[in-house]
């Protein structure tokens, strides 16, 4: 399915009616009838799981209503993307990719977890049918039977989890788990937290899925940071991306451009294929799970964990690959058409009419890129249009994407330059009421027969006028500068001629002799200065900052948040300490950064810190310059004699993986 779930099809109306009758019987048992108690005892003696009490599943959707939805779904369609029983929860931030409407399979898992179904036995000795809950009803590692459904743990904003994570905002709340935005008090950073009762049967699978996702270690996936079973609580902590937007929010205003849709499907397919090579599957890949960072990189949230939280059954490798491939096809379909490829309205997108269920994107919306349309249809449908070969695995999808012709990024539109006013400066004086003398040799064309200039012609004329005006401005400026220099040289020449000649024995320095010529100062050593952290950073590459090679650089450790004086920043800065070997008069320092613009301060240790600057605090240094850029130069007002110089990084560059790092390619010191 598009959201990573496996399609469930009811094959007959009789099966739907039987399921409705069985679910109604289960609800009667939950009502507390005496017969239900006897049946529960009998089932327990026969090895069947005990039926939960009504209090075990508070807030469970009405069973009859959901059974009717499932039955209608099985009779009329073969899709699995039925709308949720309730409205989709509103998110508090633009990274609220956690929640999405429950699919039919998820609704059935919830109902089966809250009310075990069994057929009425025609004979007293016939055993009852096992429940259809995809999760096991008995823990194989424990002799006791765990409850199938437990309510989500009740927590409030400001509560502490694990003496470390402070809950800030509830992003979603379901019957069995809740999801929060929280703050890691130890590392002072935002995180996401899922909470579930440890007594729930899904708890073990949630922990196992979170630990396997944490071992994946692929930066294209939102990282799982912690998975803990603590008393009556199970919680999973994940990375939080505050400056990213999920795909559903990106599609709110319309479809994507072909180049952006291509980048999205290429990055998502590459990441999912890599996960499958390591034995991992997502199984619930929806527009809420695909995030785009401010650097343009797409990252995937909830691998394995989302499916475990919602009780989706673990599929074999072939079915899991097909499910994730179909989900990627649905994402591309939605990005190209701004429509959800199933009848239901999902993720703020309108569903397709039943007559267009197997239509390619270019048949749904005009102007769709032909290659991307065919790719989406092959990944989404088992029988694509035009007898195309379906794509069934993420690896095949990656190879198909690589064969597409290059899709270029659209060129930015040129700004419309206003036409400059026309002034005829060479016109002769005219009478108060001038009359225009017509040329009798050439008659003017009538207005209807004059060719109207095209838009491109008008744009070229405007650009020509702008270029001419710019050229005249530059020429006049050059003439003015040259004239000023000429006059200045004449003035200095006249002054030199009028002044008496100095004798050869005079010791007074001339103006030319007082000009300072910078001299390069050799750097003895560079060291990592990190008094606010746990230890030195980038020790293996520290020498690359002074190796006279601009292609190599010293790289700091990575940070989730930018450096700064206030949370969520981990610390205010980190630095590179330059040792000149002995006190030298320093007049300028140039620093070449790589990887993008960075901010840094040039500091000189005070007399108290000059003896051991590595052990001194940052405020023990005097700031002599602040610069931001990729190639900055600090020029001192007057030469300063010092042995140590500190390049204190206060703003790092953001790399392609969304993390902040500092990169110092080369440092030069002049005296």
Written overview of the protein:
The chain is an alpha+beta fold and 671 residues long. It is built from 13 helices and 21 strands. The strands form 5 sheets. Strands 12, 13, 14, 15, 16, 17, 18 and 21 form an 8-stranded antiparallel β-sheet that branches. It has a 6-stranded antiparallel β-sheet with strand order 1-2-3-4-6-5, with helices on one face. A hairpin with a 5-residue loop joins strand 8 (290-292) and strand 9. Helix 1 (13-30) runs antiparallel to helix 3 (63-76). The longest helix has 44 residues, at 455-498. The protein is flat, with a radius of gyration of 36 Å. The model is unreliable at 1-17, 29-101, 115-146, 424-450 and 494-514 (pLDDT under 50).
């Amino acid at each position: 399915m598009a959201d990573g779930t496996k399609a469930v099809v009811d094959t007959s109306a009789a099966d739907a009616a039987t399921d409705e009758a069985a679910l109604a019987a289960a609800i009667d048992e939950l009502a507390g009838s005496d017969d239900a108690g006897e049946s529960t005892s009998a089932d327990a003696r026969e090895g069947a799981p005990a039926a939960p009490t009504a209090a075990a599943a508070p807030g469970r959707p009405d069973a009859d209503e959901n059974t009717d939805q499932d039955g209608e779904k099985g009779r009329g369609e073969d899709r699995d993307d039925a709308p949720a029983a309730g409205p989709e929860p509103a998110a508090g931030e633009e990274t609220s990719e956690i929640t999405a409407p429950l699919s039919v399979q998820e609704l059935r898992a919830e109902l089966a977890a809250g009310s075990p179904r069994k057929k009425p036995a025609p004979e007293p000795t016939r055993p009852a049918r096992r429940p259809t809950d995809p999760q096991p009803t008995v823990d194989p590692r424990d002799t006791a039977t765990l409850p199938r459904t437990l309510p989500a743990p009740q927590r409030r904003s400001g509560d502490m989890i694990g003496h470390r994570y402070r809950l800030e905002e509830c992003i979603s709340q379901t019957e069995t788990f809740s999801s929060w935005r929280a703050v890691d008090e130890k590392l002072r950073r935002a995180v996401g937290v899922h909470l579930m009762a440890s007594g729930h049967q899904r708890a073990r699978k949630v922990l196992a899925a979170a630990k396997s996702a944490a071992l994946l270690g692929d930066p294209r996936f939102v990282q799982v940071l912690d998975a803990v079973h603590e008393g009556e609580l199970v919680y999973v902590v994940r990375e939080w991306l505050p400056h990213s937007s999920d795909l559903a929010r990106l599609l709110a205003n319309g479809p994507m451009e072909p180049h952006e849709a291509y980048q999205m499907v290429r990055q998502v397919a590459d990441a999912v294929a890599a996960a499958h090579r390591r034995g991992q599957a997502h199984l619930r890949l929806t527009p809420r799970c695909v995030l785009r960072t401010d650097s343009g990189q797409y990252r995937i949230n909830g691998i394995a964990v989302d499916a475990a939280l919602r009780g989706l059954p673990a599929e074999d490798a072939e079915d899991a690959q097909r499910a994730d491939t179909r989900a990627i096809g649905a994402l591309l379909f939605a990005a190209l058409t701004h429509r959800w490829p199933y009848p239901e309205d999902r993720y703020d997108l309108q569903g397709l009419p039943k007559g267009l269920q197997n239509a390619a994107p270019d048949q749904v919306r005009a102007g769709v890129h032909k290659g991307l349309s065919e790719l989406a249809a092959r990944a989404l449908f088992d029988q694509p249009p035009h007898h195309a070969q379906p794509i069934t695995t993420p690896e095949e999808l990656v190879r198909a994407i690589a064969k597409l012709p290059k899709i270029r990024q659209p060129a930015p539109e040129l700004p419309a330059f206003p036409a400059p006013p026309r002034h005829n400066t060479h016109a002769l004086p005219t009478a108060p009421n001038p009359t225009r003398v017509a040329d009798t040799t050439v008659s003017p064309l009538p207005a209807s027969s004059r060719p109207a200039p095209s838009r491109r012609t008008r744009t070229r004329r405007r650009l020509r006028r702008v270029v001419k005006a710019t050229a005249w401005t530059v020429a006049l400026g050059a003439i003015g500068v040259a004239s000023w220099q000429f006059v200045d040289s004449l003035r200095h020449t006249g002054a030199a001629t009028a002044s008496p000649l100095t004798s050869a024995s005079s010791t007074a320095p001339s103006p030319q002799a007082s000009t300072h010529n910078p001299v390069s100062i050799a750097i003895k050593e560079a060291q990592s200065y990190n008094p606010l952290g746990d230890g030195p950073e980038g020790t293996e590459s520290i020498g690359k900052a002074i190796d006279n090679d601009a292609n190599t650089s010293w790289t700091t450790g990575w940070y989730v948040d930018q450096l700064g004086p206030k949370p969520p920043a981990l610390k205010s800065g980190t630095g590179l300490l330059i040792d000149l070997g002995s006190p030298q008069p320093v007049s300028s320092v140039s620093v070449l950064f790589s990887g993008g613009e960075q901010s840094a301060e040039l500091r000189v240790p005070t007399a108290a810190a000059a003896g051991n600057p590595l052990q001194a605090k940052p405020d023990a240094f005097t700031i002599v310059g602040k610069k931001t850029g990729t190639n900055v130069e600090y020029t001192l007002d007057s030469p300063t004699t010092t042995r140590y110089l500190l390049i204190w990084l206060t703003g790092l560059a953001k790399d392609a993986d969304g993390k902040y790092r500092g990169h110092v390619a080369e440092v030069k010191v002049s005296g």
